[in-house]
Structure formats: C-alpha cells, structure tokens
Amino acid sequence: MKAYQITGKDGLASLERVELEDPTEPQRGEITVRVRACSLNYRDYMNVMGLHGISGPLPRIPCSDAAGEVLAVGPDCGGWLPGQRVVIPFMPTWLEGEFSREHSAAALGGACDGVLREFITLPATSIVPLPDGISLDAASTLPCAAVTAWQALRVRRPVKAGETVLILGSGGVSIFALQLAKAAGARVLATTSCPEKAARLRALGADAVHQYRNDPAWDEWALAQTGGVGVDHVVEIGGAQTLNRSLHAVRFGGHIALIGVLTGTKGEINTVQVLRKGIDLNGIYVGSRAMLAEVVDAMGRERWQPVIDGTYEFDQAIEAFRRLESGLHVGKLVIRV
Ligand SMILES: NC(=O)c1ccc[n+]([C@@H]2O[C@H](COP(=O)([O-])OP(=O)(O)OC[C@H]3O[C@@H](n4cnc5c(N)ncnc54)[C@H](OP(=O)(O)O)[C@@H]3O)[C@@H](O)[C@H]2O)c1
Q1: 201 pocket-lining for ligand 1 (C-beta < 6 Å)
Q2: How far apart, in whole angstroms, are the C-alpha atoms of residue 105 and residue 110?
Q3: Mutate to test the pocket of ligand 1, among 38, 39, 42 (most ligand atoms within 8 A of CB)
Q4: Using one digit for the tens of pLDDT, what is the confidence trace for 201-233?
Q5: pLDDT confidence of 55, banded at 50, 70, 90?
Q6: Of 4, 71, 73, 272, which sits with the fewest C-beta atoms within 10 Å of its C-beta?
Q7: Where are the domains of the chain?
Q8: For domain 146-283, which CATH number applies: 3.40.50.1820, 3.40.630.30, 3.40.50.720, 1.10.150.20?
Q9: What are the residues whose beta carbons fall under 8 Å from the beta carbon of 85, sequence distance 6 or more?
Q10: Tens-place pLDDT, residues 15-36
C-alpha cells in the first residue's frame, strides 16, 4: 500500500512517500478500512518537524484524521459490511467515559502509526459510520479539530444561547468552535492576523473580529466588546504566550478550554487570576469515539459543514503540509488517498 512515513529529523525532508505491505486479513473484532481522505492538524506538522509528541522509534506514519470505506470485516464485528463509509477516531481505545493515559498512548500518528496510508486495521468498536449527507473529505476533518471544539463547547462546559465565545485565529479548531458556538446561539468574537482572514471570519458568522498584528491587546478588545464584563468562554489555542490574555479576557466564573500550544508549552502564568475569578480552566485532549459520533450527528442536525481550505492529491501531501506551515489557511486541509 502507499503511505507516508516520518523517517528522520529533517522536518518535511524526512516525510517520505513509501510502499508498505498490504495489511493481512482483519482478526476477530477488527475491521480494515480503505482510507480515502485524510486531514491535517497542526499537531501533525509538529510531529513531522520533531517538535512534539512522537515517542518511540521512527519510521512513523503521520496523521490522525481519516475517513474511508470498510474493506474487510473480521469475525465477530456485528453488522459491518464492506463498502460502508466510516470515520476513524483520534484515539481508537477511548470509546466513551473518562480520559486515561492508555487512551492518550493510542493516539494515531503520535504514539502509534497514523492514517496517511491506503489501509488501516482497527477495532470494529472504534469506527463511526457516516450518513449519506457527509462526504469523505468533510468527514476526514472531524476526528481531531471538530471533536476538540465539541468537547470544549458542548461537553465540558456547554455553551448557551446568548453567551459570548472568544476564538483565537482561523485554523481548524477555531473555525469548528465558531460554527459550534453560532449553532448554539452564542455571539462569537474572533482574533486573526490579517484583513483577508478577518473578512472570512465575518463571512463565517463571527460577530466581531480583531486583528492582533495591528493591536496585540486583544484581551482589552474582548473586555470592551462585553462592556467590561469579559467573555463566557475562550477557546485557547495559543498556550504559553496567550493564556494570560485569555485569563484577563474571560469573565468571573467563565470558562477557558485550554487546547493549543501555538505559542509554546511553558510560560509564566497568572495563576491568581484563575482562582480570584473562579475560572473554569479545562485542559482538553481531543475526545472519545462517542464525541466523534455526536459530532457526526450534529453536523446533519445543525446544518454546518467543515470549512476546507484546500484538497490535495496523495502525491501532493508535502504541499498540504507547506500550506499548514505557512499559516495562510482558513479551516482544514485535506489529502485524498
Ligand atoms: N488539545 C487538543 O486536543 C488539541 C486538538 C487540536 C489542536 N490542538 C492544538 O491547537 C492549536 C491549533 O491547532 P489547529 O490544528 O487548529 O491549527 P491550525 O489549523 O494550523 O491553525 C493555526 C492558526 O492559529 C492562528 N495562530 C497562529 N499563531 C497564533 C498566535 N501566536 N496567536 C493567536 N493565533 C495564532 C493562525 O490563524 P490567524 O492567522 O487567523 O491568527 C493560524 O492559522 C495547535 O497548538 C494544536 O496543537 C490541540
């Protein structure tokens, strides 16, 4: 089968297109999926660049997010049939309930081989069936970014109609957060780097947009937008260098979903703000298979569609990574397999 592997520590130069053995017949309780589309997350870029995550030996097949068709069904797999369209969860062992170290270790494209390949064999219990209305390209964008936004705004502290949600930037997680917040009847404030992306964010439903390159004090802007009260939720994808501003921008008793590390993993944090304001600070790590199934269901019910910045052929995978690296994208990048 065709695949990509991270073979060394030279960044994108170490991402190699390879030919690997086809998988053998699935064992009891397993299903083999023919991957058709795979989407990129910032995490995949960090893994290729050696910045984060990959523990264990190389080579490693990157990427976590894929959708495809059932190719072969092992014994005792219930009613699955070849040809059924499915989406694959980020952590195939985390079916539902609480998160654990074991589930973290099962994350595809991190501690385990990922999905940027033609076939993958998984426990039948982990994969999620797709309804007709969701394309495989769209489904491939859901397992990491959409599920993360879902856990942040629909599970850990559900957003209510009339609340204000602050999103940072226009990448995969942030655009899904925008859509989930708007679908729930919330007001969305967004920060972004440039006027073109500000226009896109407005077109996607953001109620107010702030360009942080012109004025880095987006926390003050968010406070002004809420009459000095602060926002109800922050979808925090920046990390070390943005968290203090998020702590400032959120209201007393508000919620910060701590998700990203775009500005680094370590920093001096104003911890007293967290307790003095009674902030609900939730660390989020993607989500379970049950959350992925909820996202699939919500897409049909709430009528939102993933925002796909570009679709690339398998041999153009490096180009897709370069687009992510450029930071020029809005939403998701899809590679067809
Ligand atoms: N914890 C989890 O489960 C989880 C899940 C998914 C992602 N993440 C993390 O969340 C972050 C975003 O991931 P993603 O896949 O959505 O990324 P992405 O699609 O690559 O989007 C990144 C966007 O963030 C904005 N940005 C970049 N630097 C920024 C900064 N210093 N301050 C504010 N905004 C900045 C840019 O948009 P603008 O140009 O519009 O500002 C950029 O395009 C990453 O750190 C990723 O590792 C964590």
Answers
A1: no
A2: 8
A3: 42
A4: 999 999 999 999 999 999 999 999 999 999 999
A5: low
A6: 272
A7: 2-141+306-336, 146-283
A8: 3.40.50.720
A9: 67, 68, 69, 129, 130, 136, 139
A10: 999 999 999 999 999 999 999 9
